[in-house]
Structure formats: C-alpha cells, structure tokens
Design brief:
With 483 residues, this protein is an alpha/beta fold. Strands 7-1-4-3-2-6-5-8 form an 8-stranded mixed beta sheet, with no helix packed on it. Strand 3 and strand 4 form a beta hairpin. The N and C termini lie far apart (169 Å).
C-alpha cells in the first residue's frame, strides 16, 4: 500500500493530538500519578458512626472548594473509616470538622471539611479526624418514619381540611408564589453581596433605637397631633374636597397672574430686596408701630365721637383754639447764624454745607423734643443720637448750650464745636471768606426817611411819630395791607 505525503502528515498530526489528549486525560482528569503512586496528594482518615451513604470517589470540599476525593470506605468494629485523598498544595488546619452532606435528595454524598476554633497547624499524611468531630446526615428512612408517625397523629379529617383550605388559599397563585420565591432569592443574594454593610447596620443600629426610645414621648405627641389633623380633615371633608376641586383652577389663575406680572414683578422683588435690610434694621420700630396703631386708632375714634348724641351745639372732637405764641419758642441753636441765611427770593441751588444742622440743645430740653437729637439708635438700645455714625460709634451727643438764649448768639458755646456739626473723624472746614456786614441805616423819626445801602432815600410813613395810622400790637402779627 502506497501512502501519499499528505496522508502521512495527517496520520502524524492525528497521532500527536491523540497522545496529547490521552496524556491530559490521564494526568489532569483521571489523576493516574495519584491513583498509581499517590503523587501530589496525602491521605487522612475520618471516623464515622456509619457510612451515611458515603461512597468511594466521592468529593471532599474545604470551605466550599473541592480539595480531594474519598479513596475508600471501610467497615470497622466501632463504625466506619473513610480514607480521604487531599491535594498537597492546599493547607487544611488539623482542627477541622468533617461532615457528610448530600448534594440532592437522591444522594450524591460528599465530605465537607469546616474549620472550627482558632488556627491550627495543617494536616499531614496519616492524620485521623476522630468521631467527636464528624457527623453524618440523618437516615432518610428514619426521617420518613418520623414524618409518617407525625401525619398519623393528626386526625384524618383535620388533615384533609388543612389540605383543602391550603388548595383554596393558594390555587392559581403559582406565578405569584414563584415571583415571591424568586424575589426572596434575589433579596438573599443581594444581602449576601452586601453582607458587610448589613452587618455594619446591625452593629450600629443600637444608638438609633436608643434615640427612638428616648424620644418616645415626642413620637407619641407627633402621632397624637397627626391623629388630630386626620380627624379635622375627616370633619371638614367637604371643604377639603372643595380645595382639591378648585385647587387646579386656582393654580392656573395664579400662574396666569404671575405671567402678567412677569415684566414688573422682578423689579418689585428687587426693590423689596433693597428695602428688606432697612425693614430688618427697624423691625422693633415696626412691631411697636403695629402694637400702637390699633390703640391710636381707638383714641382718634374716641376723640372724633366725643360729642355724639350730646346737647352741645357743635359736633366733633374737643379742640382748643387758644393762641399760643412762642410756647415753646423755636429752637435756633445749632443752625447757621442769621448773617448766613439765604434770602427767600433766591432761586439758585448752591451745594449744602458740609455737616449736619439740627437743634443742638440738651436731649431733655423742652425745645424741639422730636428733633434729630432724640432719634433712638436701632443697634444701641437706650442710646439716642442725631446721626447713624454717632449711633454706631462710642461718641455721645454733646449739646451746644442749654437753649435758653432769648437774645445774643444762639450758638454760643465753650466746647468749641463747629457749626454745622461734622461727622466723627472729619477734618475741620477751611476758613471761609468774611461775610459782608448786615446792611443797616438810620432813619429820621420825624419823617420816617432813611438812606438804603444803594444810596437812595426811602420813606416809610409808619416809622414817623406823626403817622396818620393808628398801630396796635395786633398789627405786628398781621401782614401790611395796601390802601
């Protein structure tokens, strides 16, 4: 038979692949070196009270990971000895507990090695796990016998009733129960994934629960208040329904109103934002005003209806029209002297002088009692000052004099204060040019003639002794009249 070169190459490749697969099968899966020579494994023995369904070649696990196989199961005088072949590369502590478990209800037993206690030296060839640290699953026959005895202890009619009622309760709920089981499984898996966080919550939930216990009175009060609110909602059910029915329409109207206000509302809010600091500063004054306003209104009403339903000829408030002259007299202390007054006929608008002009007499004087000197300081309760800067500073108000200056300089003072008053720390004003003297002229009492500042001669008849008109003190209070 003649083989071509191609067929020869194919046979060689097939032979190499077959030998490689056989080698992998023998060494990786079958474990021929371990079976024939025990290479890479060591053997230990576990003492069992009974086999418990354990069989040769069964799996051996440590912490859920496969680490070997059951090499043999032998009957002894006191029980059963199972020889385990364990991998040499995995260190298993010598104080482990060996438990025989079943993978499923039909069998497939395996040996689970579980560590107990503190760390111990690893096991080695020939070690024995005593019966005190081994366990086997209960016999299925014993379990069935116990279940059968339990069912026989229940009356048949009652058991039938339970089964029938269970069928009625859960009939057709298979998908829902499946979803419940699936959700519970997912929840358990998520709980296992987040076991550290759950453990942390359990460990630290104590202080939170203690807080709830300490605030139990507050919680009870909150629950009572909530109950009161609920009862009020119940009693006013019609009104609540009305609000719910009318609420959308009202909200729409408010939205339309805001749309119409859109051009002006931002400006209004900006202005309110500017006014807000002032309102906050004068909050106490506003509160006092709101307190006194009703009382003042009541007093005005009482004055206005004082003569109502009376026999007097006039109706209205009790008013006195007595003429009081200079009582109290005007305050001229703290203002510019008469030489610097502007003529009423002047129409220009020069810059105001630096500083403040106000009545600068003692704060308890009878003159101008509502003047600037008695303004209360908002940020300094109990202090009164004419300016905000004086209120905020440690400077106190100092009057020029006592104000009783019926003649002479009303600003006469020995304290050296400037007129107008400069703010604290301000530099004194530069000396101004000398003011022109007041124009004055002597007149002839016999004729009432005098020479004015412009050099012209003027005559005023009421200055002459022989004046034809009679003058009384009342004429001094009335403007001159023309003939």
């Amino acid at each position: 038979m003649h083989l071509t070169r191609r067929i020869t190459i194919q046979l060689v490749i097939f032979t190499v692949v077959s030998l490689t697969a056989a080698t992998i099968m023998m060494f990786a899966f079958i474990g021929v070196p371990n079976l024939l020579f025990g290479i890479g494994h060591y053997r230990i023995t576990i003492e069992l009270p009974e086999a418990g369904g354990l069989y040769k070649t069964g799996n051996v696990t440590y912490r859920g990971t496969e680490v070997g196989r059951v090499e043999s199961v032998q009957l002894t005088d006191s029980g059963v000895d199972a020889v385990l072949s364990l991998q040499s590369g995995i260190d298993i502590p010598s104080n482990v507990q060996a438990q025989v478990h079943s993978v499923s209800a039909v069998g497939e037993q395996y040996v689970a090695l579980l560590p107990i206690g503190e760390a111990a030296p690893p096991m080695k060839e020939g070690d024995v796990i005593p019966r005190s640290r081994t366990s086997v699953p209960p016999d299925i026959n014993s379990l069935l016998d116990a279940t059968n005895r339990g069912l026989n202890a229940i009356p048949r009619d009652n058991l039938k009733t339970v089964i029938d009622e269970s069928y009625t309760a859960f009939a057709g709920l298979g998908p829902e129960i499946a979803r419940f089981v699936k959700g519970s499984t997912t929840l358990a898996i998520d709980a296992k994934t987040n076991l550290g966080a759950l453990t942390n919550v359990v460990d630290n939930v104590g202080p939170i629960l203690d807080t709830q216990t300490d605030t139990s009175a507050s919680v009870q009060a909150w629950a009572a208040h909530l109950a009161d609110i609920t009862r009020q909602f119940q009693r006013n059910d019609g009104a609540v329904q009305g609000v719910l029915r009318s609420g959308p329409g009202a909200a729409s109207e408010v939205r339309q109103l805001l749309e119409r206000w859109k051009p002006t509302l931002p400006v209004l809010l900006a202005n309110l934002a500017s006014i807000n600091p002032v309102l906050v500063t004068y909050r106490d004054n506003l509160e006092q005003l709101l307190v006194l306003l009703p009382q003042g209104t009541a007093m005005e009403q009482a004055i206005g209806v004082a003569n109502r339903n009376s026999k007097q000829d006039y109706k209205g408030a009790y008013l006195s029209f007595n003429l009081n002259l200079n009582l109290p007299p005007p305050c001229t202390t703290g203002f510019l002297p008469a030489q610097q007054w502007r003529a009423p006929a002047a129409v220009d608008y020069p810059d105001r002088p630096d500083g403040d002009l106000y009545c600068r007499v003692p704060q308890d004087a009878m003159f101008n009692v509502r003047g600037a000197r008695n303004l209360p300081c908002e940020t300094r309760p109990g202090k009164r000052a004419p300016t905000v800067k004086m209120c905020e500073s440690d400077e106190n108000y100092v009057p020029l004099n006592d104000g009783y200056n019926w003649k002479g300089d009303p600003n006469a003072t020995l304290s050296g204060q400037a007129i107008p008053q400069l703010p604290p720390g301000a530099a004194p004003p530069q000396s101004a040019a000398a003011l022109p003297p007041i124009a004055a002229a002597e007149y002839d009492p016999a004729t009432g003639t005098y020479v004015g500042p412009d050099g012209q001669i003027y005559t005023q008849g009421n200055l002459a002794h022989r004046g034809t008109e009679e003058h009384t003190w009342q004429d001094m209070l009335l403007p001159p009249h023309s003939n």
